[in-house]
Amino acid sequence: MATFQIEGGQALKGEIQPQGAKNEALQILCAVLLTNETVKINNIPDIRDVNKLIDILSNLGVKIQKLGNGTYSFKSDELNLDYLESEQFKQEGSGLRGSIMIVGPLLGRFGRGYIPRPGGDKIGRRRLDTHFEGFIKLGAEFRYNKEERFYGVEAPKGLKGTFMLLEEASVTGTANIVMAAALAEGETTIYNAACEPYLQQLCKMLVSMGAKIDGIGSNMLKITGVKELGGCTHTILPDMVEIGSWIGLAAMTKSEITIKNVSWDNLGLIPTTFRKLGITIERKGDDIYIPAHKNGYEVQSFIDGSIMNISDAPWPGFTPDLLSIILVVATQAKGSVLIHQKMFESRLFFVDKLIDMGAKIILCDPHRATVIGHNFESQLKATTMTSPDIRAGISLLIAALSAKGTSTIHNIEQIDRGYEDIDGRLKKIGAKITRL
Ligand SMILES: CC(=O)N[C@H]1[C@@H](OP(=O)(O)OP(=O)(O)OC[C@H]2O[C@@H](n3ccc(=O)[nH]c3=O)[C@H](O)[C@@H]2O)O[C@H](CO)[C@@H](O)[C@@H]1O
Ligand SMILES: C=C(OP(=O)(O)O)C(=O)O
Prior knowledge:
The chain has helices at 22-31, 48-59, 87-93, 103-110, 129-137, 171-182, 197-208, 240-252, 270-276, 323-330, 351-356, 390-402, 413-416, 422-428, and strands at 3-7, 13-16, 38-42, 63-68, 71-75, 112-116, 141-145, 150-154, 163-165, 187-191, 212-214, 220-224, 232-235, 256-259, 282-284, 287-290, 308-311, 336-340, 360-365, 368-372, 384-386, 406-410, 432-435. With 436 residues, it is an alpha+beta fold. The chain folds into 2 domains: 3-19 and 238-435, Enolpyruvate transferase domain (UDP-n-acetylglucosamine1-carboxyvinyl-transferase, Chain, Alpha-beta prism), CATH 3.65.10.10; 22-235, Enolpyruvate transferase domain (UDP-n-acetylglucosamine1-carboxyvinyl-transferase, Chain). Helix 1 (22-31) runs parallel beside helix 2 (48-59) and helix 8 (240-252) packs parallel to helix 10. The relative contact order is 0.15. The mean pLDDT is 97. Phosphoenolpyruvate binds at residues 22-23, 49, 97-98, 120-121, 321, 390-391, 418.
């Protein structure tokens, strides 16, 4: 277990270049399995989860070449599908959440796909029903080995397009079904589809490979299956969750930071939501400029004067992956805010660490926490903590950077899952952080 030691209380200053988006990269990497031609991908983030998925692809027989920083080519012309039934795959496939998305492309192209129960954050129940119900609707047979927690779908006669109304707008579920449907016979309609920028990017990539998809960006996708897909070049968008993390870090450490080339048009409600906490976010071309909040920031109230409430929702709502960061930033705001994490039932438990540091938070129930901001009248106190999940991890890191004294964060592998060279990049803008 690796550890960060952080000397808090320093104002930071400088420019940050956001990494490529983790959750988009995981979808895009799985899509390389859909063709025997070469796929070139730019802006792949160098993070643990993505590297684990690249290893799985390599073990599946995908020919992978690193062409430059963040740029790779992939060729899936001679796959070793026996790997899917190996003990090694049972280990490796369960190491991250994103691995679940190899099932759709394998089912679409080869008529079978298998996966052990995938890993990822332990932030509440993370069902896979949407994925498998979608595959079954397309004509696949489903089996599940309870003892081994191993899932399988097979469609020896191929998949057939159909209409489906998803029970929930699952991000990875929609991606999986879209990839399978791209090679199914006939037309598939997916209603209540997730439409995060990750999915819009996946659909655009598939179209450039020869897929026929209408409704990109909406919750109704119409996919007309084709016989085969070809190669393409795709560039991953900047990571909107990382961008939100930098906004929170800048405000809470009273730092002046410019986040470069953020792709503003793909940030949805992220700037608006941070502004609800009173944070100044200026648009400069495609950059975000955050001035040093020397006098703090004040939570806005609703028109009727009622207490501010920030909650998550499927896109174009506010992403659940930034609520932990909003929560930590609120601990130093002027005013109070109710944080409502609707999707995941154990993502707010990390607040006990913040309470330990002196933050005023009432955990109302597993989904809701009220934060009463300090308005910087009292600094958080340094402490020793363990990072429970990726976003709680970065939130604790932000808390430690703003706190008085030296904090220690264990289990930082959680942060490394989704943040590229976080300590190196923080040091460049003046943070005192050491990896032990
Ligand atoms: C690798 C990856 O891409 N991971 C992301 C993906 O996970 P993932 O695709 O696993 O998440 P899902 O979209 O399937 O669902 C997330 C959770 O939200 C609940 N749910 C979902 C949709 C809905 O309309 N109502 C509802 O309650 C689900 O029951 C589940 O508990 O999407 C999540 C939701 O944005 C993000 O937190 C994860 O970072
Ligand atoms: C929950 C997340 O990731 P994963 O789905 O990979 O666990 C996240 O990125 O915040």
